[in-house]
Amino acid sequence: MNLAKAGVLPVQVELVLISHLHADHFSDLIPFLFHQSWSLMGKTRTPLTILGPSGTREMIAGLRRTIPLLGEHVFPIEARDMDSGTFEYGAIRATPVPVSQPAG
Q: Is 66 helix (H, G, I), strand (E, B) or coil?
C-alpha cells in the first residue's frame, strides 16, 4: 500500500534491503511477491535482489517453499545474506553495521 501511495509500481522495485529478520521488517514481502506472481502472468521483469542479514536467503527460500505461488515466479529473485562488506547497486551503497535492539 505504501508503494501505491508513493506512486511506485511493484515491478519498478529492483532491490529490497532488510535490516533484520523480525517479522515486522520482512512480512510485507509476502503480499509484494504474491502481487508479482499474479500481475506478471506470462510477462517478465528485471530481477529482484533481496539483501539482508545472515539467514535472509534461507528465509526467502522457506517462504517460496511453503506459500503457494511464491515459488512460481516468472522473474529471477536473488536473495543474499550480508553481514559484512559493502554492497553497491547503482547509486546505492549499503554497509551493514551491527547494532543491538532494546529488549522488550
A: helix
